[in-house]
Design a protein that fits this description.
With 148 residues, this protein is of the alpha+beta class. The chain has a domain of 103 residues: OB fold (Dihydrolipoamide Acetyltransferase, E2P) (Beta Barrel), CATH 2.40.50. Helix content is 28%, strand content 32%. The protein has a five-stranded mixed beta barrel with strand order 2-4-5-7-6. The radius of gyration is 27 Å and the shape is flat. The N and C termini lie far apart (90 Å).
């Protein structure tokens, strides 16, 4: 074999090895029910803060303990325990990406990513109201051409 052929085979083997090593780090989002089935394994759950339950956080006595309930997109609720300081604007977040492991009765969270509401989100009712106000305030223009 020529040296170029050997180099190409080595390059292909290295590429395959790198791709296989990344397979373990690729993650998909799970629901609470699938996280329960994968108990003890690290998973990522997309959820919303359950505002029907109180957030348990005492910044003075226990600053590294946060407990709250989260609801996934299918409506399943789970208690989340986060042993780090409470993220700012947790209450204002639209969605949460919770990374951690499911234990017996709670989700032991190691990382919280907050998806905040977009300030560019259109409010259709407000847009219609603005359109009506602008149409009423602007006098109707005569669109027929006038020749002199």
């Amino acid at each position: 074999m020529k040296k170029i052929h050997i180099a190409l085979l080595v390059l292909i083997a290295v590429t395959i090895a790198v791709l296989i090593s990344f397979m373990g780090t690729l993650s998909t989002y799970d629901t609470v029910q699938t996280a329960i089935k994968k108990k003890g394994k690290t998973v990522s759950i997309i959820a919303k803060l359950d505002r029907t339950h109180a957030i348990e956080y005492d910044a003075v006595n226990s600053p590294n303990h946060l407990s709250f309930f989260a609801v996934d997109s299918l409506g399943s609720s789970v208690k989340v325990i986060y042993n780090q300081p409470k993220p700012s604007n947790l209450e204002h977040s639209e969605r949460l990406v919770l990374k951690g492991k499911m234990n017996d009765d709670h989700f032991e969270c190691s990382e919280i990513l907050m998806k905040c509401p977009s300030k560019y989100k259109d409010d259709m009712n407000q847009a219609k109201k603005n359109l009506q106000e602008n149409a009423a305030a602007t006098p109707a223009k005569n669109t027929t051409p006038q020749y002199q």
